[in-house]
Amino acid sequence: MLFLFRAAGFQNYAKRATLYSLAETPENVDEFLQHVCKKLRPISTEVARKQLLPIIKNSYRKTKMHNLQTDCNANLIWPSDLPFALGVKRQALCSRVSYNSK
Fold it and tell me: Where exactly are the structural domains of the chain?
């Protein structure tokens, strides 16, 4: 694969992409993203606990009702739980919106 950033004389794509941007350097982009992550971590933890954990706990309860074995702790959100929980949340929001629009 031809790396166009090298052909243009740059060390990597990040240096080329930030050349004429407000960020100016890849290091500034990294610093900004680290700052945003630090600020959002407490908020995202709270949102996950209030919005997603109840969906996941309910899912584990249903799993136990059907006598299916699960080794997962229902007080934790695993990466594999996120698509399911977000899908349930999205479906609930979409049904609420379509119901209210009629």
Answer: 7-101
